[in-house]
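Comment thread on ticket #2218

A.B. wrote:
> Attaching the input chain for the structure job we discussed in standup.
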Amino acid sequence: MGDRTRALCDDAPMRASPAITRRILLVRRSAAQLLDRRSSGGPDAAVRTLLAVQAQDRSAWRLALRARVEGITAADVDRALTDDRSLLVAWLNRGTLHLVRSDDYPWLWALTAPTQTTANMRRLAQLGISPDDVDRGVACIERSLVSDGPLTRPQIRSRLEAAGIGTEGQRLVHLLFATVNRGLAVMGPMVAGEHAFAHTREWLGRSPEKLSAERREIALAELARRYLRSHGPATAADLAKWAGLPLRDARSGLRLVAGELVELDGGLVDLADRKPSAFELEARWSREPLPPRLLPSFDPCLLGWTAREPFLARDHEPHVIPPGGGLFRAMATVDGSAAATWSPRRERDRVAVRINPFVPLDADAEAALAAEAADVARFEGRVLV
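C.D. wrote:
> Ran it. Output below, let me know if you need it in another format.
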């Protein structure tokens, strides 16, 4: 969790700050999300800043990194997963797949996985799998990963079925969830174009462990600090929703780092030591618009707070999140806020990008989004058509 866990000041006062406007909130959160400029540090550095990137859609989270990191390619992301082992995917916050740094996985797992165990077991029971059969399935997956891993989902399915364990419907995914939830597996390397599961200890050299009361406080402090680094300004309720933790845990984490924070209007807090400073950010982006971006479905900028504004205006939500919920369309931002949806159509080594505005776009915005489309093709190693 790093050197900064040294200062757990439960009674340290927050510093006060002037009122915060919608524009200031957009600028600060865009900077926290690496959307005001691209990082030059590679995929690992970007994920360190973001802490955890929702990752149920493999093409989407890769494009989320493209939008934030200068000059990377999909192959660079594969190398971080497979060769460097610096990144991995696991069911963590809110019981959803997230991309995280391997170094951050153990403490994030220890904080967030226990909150999902009951729901996972309930869902397995609804699927007709008894607790004993869950244990059999998890043991089979673990043995297979130790002896033959890493393995793709179809390979794991065949081993479960050979052991007489049903995988029809959603049974396979929830048995995999149970295995990951117990700290026995992660999604590590790419194998034949698929994201494969690996045994946690075999892949990382150690297994995650439950936290003592003292270590849990240190982890909550790190969570609060790192969440604000990527999402501030934010509230305790925002942190609780994003992490899938009780509000009391979010408040505890923020209280533990209170001496590092500045207090804003509306219960918002932020890190006091941001670089560039809030003043420098606001001075720059008051003079010029934030850079347009093509962001993927389920982009982190829509999933980190209790409300999606200022990245997505409430009146525009139906364009990006169709009625019924659950689906997030890829969106294009202009001056930091959603202005269009977009969709790539891939065919072999070619990709076509269609942009569908729901607000008027001027010539500069259209040109910038066309350049973004070309960068999507470059990232994927395709030709834009």
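A.B. wrote:
> Thanks. Noting for the ticket: Residues 2-14 have pLDDT under 50 and may be disordered.
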